[in-house]
Amino acid sequence: MTTDAFEQTNWVWQFSLFQQQVGEWIEYQFSRFQKTLPELPPGWSINPWLGELLNILFWLGLGLFVVWIGWRLWQEFNPYIYAWLNAMSNSPGFRTKADSRETSIALLLNQAQEFHQQYNYTEACRCVYLAMLQQLHEQAIAHQQPSRTDGEYLQLLKSSVTLIQPYQILINTHEQLCFSEHEMLAENYQQCWQAYQQIFQRLS
How many other β-carbons are positioned within 10 Å of the β-carbon of residue 169? Predict the structure, then answer.
């Protein structure tokens, strides 16, 4: 194989060529941007310590923004993450079914209480709703399915349980969480908690 043929087929050479093209494009775009900037006075330069301060402030601001985004995502999805982890723990050989059930539901209810103490009634109501779904799944009344809507759960429950009102409270509250701007209050959480207690007493 000749040197020319090797260079045309070598991926390292191709990648190096691509890097060079990208670098030239960035340099060209940067030079165009510089031409649009106003002319600075002759001999003008930024103070080195000010440049260092601006650099530190930039990275500090970026770090705080990333932490804030991560915290918001964790607040939004941690009930689902806990539910998923506990669903995984239901697999044979990992833990007995009874222990898994108690841990999963207890964890969601503990999360609900913690959110309630933090005055985060939206997430508190969501955790109680997820505990209800887990309870229905474990009792084989309504198996959890990602594609199943709240309306489908309600229709299924109407034909499976005698006391529908507590389920209706939790399902309607969850629909408000998902599809309206309604702000959850302490009263909403208390309604959800009492509804779950009624469900738990009838199923246990």
Answer: 21
pLDDT tens digits, one per residue of 45-93: 556 777 688 778 888 988 899 999 988 887 777 666 766 665 565 544 4
Q: Could you give the CA distance from residue 126 to residue 21 in angstroms, rounded to a whole number?
A: 51
Distance, in Å, from the CA atom of 188 to the CA atom of 204, rounded to the nearest integer, reads: 24
149: left (phi over 0), alpha (psi -120 to 50) or beta: beta
How far is Cα 79 from Cα 86, in angstroms, rounded to an integer?
Answer: 11
Residue 127: predicted pLDDT: 92
Tokens of residue 36, six digits: 């649009």
| 127 touches 191 (CB < 8 A) | no
Residue for token digits 């246990």?
204
Q: Is 175 within 8 Å of 169 (Cβ atoms)? A: no
Q: Measure the CA–CA gap between 131 and 109, rounded to whole angstroms.
A: 7
Question: CB under 8 Å to 200, separation ≥6 — which residues?
Answer: 135
